Amino acid sequence: MGRTACCKKNGLRKGPWTPEEDQKLTDYIQKNGYGNWRTLPKNAGLQRCGKSCRLRWTNYLRPDIKRGRFSFEEEETIIQLHSVLGNKWSTIAARLPGRTDNEIKNYWNTHIRKRLLRMGIDPATHSPRLDLLDLSSILSSSSLYNPSQVDNLSRLLGVQAVVNPELLRLAASLYPSQRENPNFFSENVQGNQLCNPQFQNQLPPLVQPNQLQALEIPFSSETHVMDPNVEQFSSNFTNFTQNEWQPGDYAALQNYGFYGSEQSIMDPNSLSENSTFQSNNSNNFSPASLNSNSTGINGSNVSNEDERESYCSNMLKLEMMEMLDVNQFM
DNA sequence: AAAGTCTTCAACCGCCGGCGA
DNA sequence: CTCGCCGGCGGTTGAAGACTT
User: Locations of Low complexity compositional bias (predicted)?
Assistant: First the structure.
């Protein structure tokens, strides 16, 4: 404490950089490199502190910076790495060529974090949010298996607007099964996918710790996030119902082990005949195609993210409904 | 069209650790 | 060992643009 911020000294400029300043900084660094950030601004003729120059260069002007939207794979990587590393943005950035820690941090805070919250996942711990878990534990108490009491519970909790009472009943009915058979959900997830012969022999493990090992990140087999554990499912699944599902949750879900790798999900051959996507012109879904410019179904322009998220959300709705066989409840 | 609200992200701030004197 | 400098990091802010009413 006590040390004054470098920019407060000598009336140095603050705030947004002008194109002229950018040019000066770029020219200087391209000619001389950046030896000493403290002396650089003076040498480059900039009324900025060294710190500001370093930031501007590393976060914006550096030639190898990749600008634009994060790709599907990048988003997946961020979620996976964050689940292991936490807010180590610079370490995460080191695994994403062309992306800066600042950019990743911003993207996390403005996009991914919100999605996880929406899904009932605590972005800090990557575990189910305690408030939702509490609901599950309440549901697990035997007296509440009476559907009418579930209704009472939902009224009590004021969750009617969010959770369909029928689905609360479903949750209540599933929960004892889960308790009796800890593998209940994972078996159902796997089993359901395997119902489609085209999924057979295609499914990689839901969780691929070796992906992390390949990244040379210390990976603990105890990392709860990497286990498609049943608790996550039981608390999250209420959020996938009704209109709670939001676009873009796919990547997050995939990271929580609810789905296989994108090869199995994205392979158009693996889509069921009745799939909504068959009516979509974009049959060749792949992460790459999802990121390419395209025209929406109605000929209107749809942004890449819209399209990607639309696909993902539809896919998940279908899969989730199949998996839970919840049609009768809807 | 205007006002209000929300979202995004570039930039700043304060702190920390490494290093050399 | 201590001190000061420097680079780097993560949290936070606020201007600007987007969106909604």
Answer: 272-294
Q: How far is CA A169 from CA A91, A146, A204, A320, in A?
A: 44, 8, 33, 17
Residue A291: which residues within 8 A CB-CB, separation 6 or more? A69, A71, A72, A304, A308
Position A126 pLDDT exceeds 70 = yes
The domain boundary residue, chosen from A105, A122, A139: A122
Based on the fold, state whether residues A19 and A38 are members of the same structural domain. Answer: yes
Domain extent for A48? 10-61
Task: Specify the pLDDT at position A260.
Answer: 37
The C-alpha atoms of residue A326 and residue A330 are separated, in whole angstroms, by 7
If you write DSSP's letter for every residue of A131-161 in order, what string do you get? HHHHHHHHHHSGGGGSHHHHHHHHHHHT-TT
DSSP three-state, residue A6: helix
* Whole-number pLDDT of residue A10: 61
CA of A323 to C1' of B6 (A): 36
Amino acid at A330: M
Residues lying close to strand B (Cβ under 7 A), chosen from 78-107 of chain A, are: 102-103, 105-107
Q: Tokens standing for A46?
A: 């900039």
Decide if pLDDT at A145 tops 60.
no
Any atom of strand B under 7 A from CB of A50?
no
Check: CB of residue A119 under 8 Å from CB of residue A253: yes
What gap in Å lies between CA A79 and CA A71, rounded to an integer? Answer: 12
Structure tokens at A286: 């792949």
**Chain B bases near protein CB atoms (7 A cut-off):** 7-15
- Within a domain: A94: yes
The domain that holds A33 is classified in CATH as: 1.10.10.60
